[in-house]
Amino acid sequence: MENPNQEIHDEPLEPTSSHGLWLTGRFLHQLLQSSKVALPMLVLALVAGLSQSLNGIFFQLYFWSRRADSDFYLLEGDNLFRVFNLLTALIIVYLFIRGVLEGRKAWLLLKLSETDDDALLEGTERLGKMFRWLTLWGAVYIGRIIFIEFWAAILG
Amino acid sequence: MTNTPLDAPTGFIPADDDRPAGEWMEGYWATIALWAKRFAVLVFAFSAWQSYLEIDGFIRYQQWTVGLDQIYILLIISYSVAEALLYGLLGYYCFRFAQYLERALAGQDQLLLEKAFRFLHYFGRVGLIIACLSIVSSISQWSYTINVMSEYDPGQFSEEPVPLQSED
């Protein structure tokens, strides 16, 4: 008499899961939902960032121009610090704008990714570039803060 | 309905219209995970710095103010501390996104991949809140700048010009 349990163990097991990464409908729909949040976020971040940066630069230039008239010497007074401040502010603004614009392009493409494979591929590539530009921006921003603190500590 | 053995692996089962991601997509995801992690660390550092500045400022101001002024200072600084903590949350979501993406790529785990992009969605939501708060901050900064400019007295900084040695 055959063992009924043996028959069950002899049957080949059908695979119940699959390894590997897939472009599922749920994943692509998630990208679409994320683009609806990310696009307004990037626009508002660009407006806020530009506004704050222009405010800071304008503040510096206005009071710099209102000082007593005299010839400009780089190493005189705090002129070197002001020039450093201004240049780094411009670099920070540039890096921020590059990051945000790259992000905007990425999410506009990812919005179409449910039906367009090229948009999905290019959008994903640009998302990596967005994080790269924003990382550079963050590094320069924090580096500037650290440098200013160090400078102030040295000068007392 | 078929019986499955207790030790059968559970996990993702692709549908008929699902497609494999492919090497290029996985390559881009690897790049995203790398840079997102670095960005998250910088956001954490900024959040910690901002929190320290605000708390230090509050401790200093508290010594000089009394009564209602202390409450106003507390409200203003609480707002700034809340903004700094939001940056911390932004960094957390970005870090988790990068971490789950790395693990998904390493283990070829579809569920982790989808979880990673859910954290990217949360990152976007927190970023949107921070962007709105930043616009409010920038409006107050501009009003402060215009206020200071209108009250600025150029004579306040006038000094006797110091003759250069060559002019002696």
Protein described:
- The complex is a heterodimer of chains A (156) and B (168).
- Chain A has helices spanning 4-10, 25-65, 79-110, 117-155, and one strand spanning 22-23.
- With 156 residues, chain A is an all-alpha fold.
- In chain A, helix 2 (25-65) packs antiparallel against helix 3 (79-110).
- Chain A is elongated, with a radius of gyration of 28 Å.
- With 168 residues, chain B is mainly α.
- Chain B contains 3 helices and 1 strand.
- Chain B has helices at 22-64, 68-107, 110-151; one strand at 19-20.
- The longest helix of chain B is centred in the first third of the chain and has 43 residues, at 22-64.
- Chains A and B meet through strand 1, helix 2 and helix 4 of A and strand 1, helix 1 and helix 3 of B.
- Strand 1 (22-23) of chain A pairs antiparallel with strand 1 of chain B.
The count of β-strands of chain B is 1
Rg from alpha-carbon coordinates of chain A? 28 Å
Q: What's the pLDDT, averaged over the residues of chain B?
A: 81
Q: Mind telling me the C-alpha Rg of chain B?
A: 27 Å
What fraction strand of chain A? Answer: under 5%
Biggest interchain interface, per-side counts: A-B, 54 and 65 residues
Low-pLDDT residue intervals, each spanning 5 or more residues of chain A: 6-17
* Helix share, percent of chain A: over 70%
Residue runs with pLDDT of under 50 for 5 or more positions of chain B: 4-10
Residue-averaged pLDDT of chain A = 83
How many DSSP helices of chain B? 3
Helix-strand string of chain B: EHHH
Alpha-beta content class of chain B: mainly alpha
The backbone outline of chain A, from C-alpha atoms, is elongated
Class inferred from helices and paired strands of chain A: mainly alpha
Characterize the biggest β-sheet of chain A. none
Query: What is the string of helix and strand elements of chain A?
Result: HEHHH
